[in-house]
Sequence to fold (121 residues):
Amino acid sequence: MFNESIDGRLVVPEPSAAVCNEGTYNATACSIAKAQWTNAAWRSDQIGAMQFHNWENSSCSVFVNSSTCNQGSVPVLAVDAILPEHVQATVRFAVMNNLRLVIKSTGHDLLGRSTAAGSLL
Fold:
């Protein structure tokens, strides 16, 4: 019902390095991630990525294939909002369900406050 209220824009974000690790490995996506790893514009476009990858998690890397790549501080659900109504519905949903809500916008937070384990983005 919530996903319908936001036009199906609910997504499950993954750490940006997940595509280079066991379980979620994707050769094409991994090559792109390696090439773009320090590109701020690319990182901004990845729902599970933060400008500084240290705020994502410490269990996986694009440079070393790991058997574990946990969610870390990457939110467990996210809304890819494109309309003000999506944002409004998400805030209402978070309040009604007592969910920790974090905001990722066009800027970034050097202190990592735009991400949180177990949160809704």
